[in-house]
Amino acid sequence: MAFDLSMPILVVDDYSTMIRIIRNLLKQLGFDNIDDASDGSMALDKMRGKKYGLVISDWNMEPMTGYDLLKEVRADPNLATTPFIMITAESKTENVIAAKKAGVNNYIVKPFNAATLNASEAATRFGRSNGRYAAAGGVSNMDWIFCCSVCALNGLTM
Prior knowledge:
This protein is α/β, with parallel strands linked by helices. About 45% of the residues lie in helices and about 15% in strands.
């Protein structure tokens, strides 16, 4: 089965450079239907107006954090099944646990690369997140998670 490269993806980050980086990484992977929002409130508004195949969100934003966005998405029956990847510099175990309990599909710690994003997106689509997270560096756990996520979101098995 082929990847659905036309799947709409929403990137949420208050740092425009990070949005540009994630957008470029997704484009390297072949995705071209990419929207962005600068905080959780804006993202929630966009999600209520368009069905996204994936949300990639930063944790630390104002006025609505990515964590609060995740909780709102999971509480809304129309949005609850949207695959959600949290990307953050926060690698504290309690944050990872909180995000997992709130329903995040995958958790990526910055910095990361295209392979990491791809594995996480694939794992997210397959529903195979095991609560692990990874950090960048060579072919890491994070790279595997991103590749698995992309494949999973597109119905491929690994």
